[in-house]
Amino acid sequence: MERPEANPWLIHLIYKLLHAEEGALELLDGDPFEGEGAPRFIRTELYRYEYPPPEELARPHWWRRRRLGRFLPTFSKEHGGMNAAVRAAGWPELGR
Hints:
Blueprint: H1 8-18, H2 22-26, E1 42-50, E2 64-75, H3 80-89
Antiparallel strand pairs: 1-2
């Protein structure tokens, strides 16, 4: 993935998930919050995925992943930078 600044959609998705916005939750395979409402925090981490060599393809894992580190800061509904980005992009504010 490119730099975080090149992916404003990710900030928007995180913002919507922090507000348990139905449309954003429908993008996921089930409700990761198990009906508990919106999460308090969302953390993003960056991984590099690689296919294993052909001799390992019969194993149950189709790829290997290696953690590269944090991709974005941890966000909450009160994160000023995220809320400023939402306003600057002209996206509708939720929960106000």
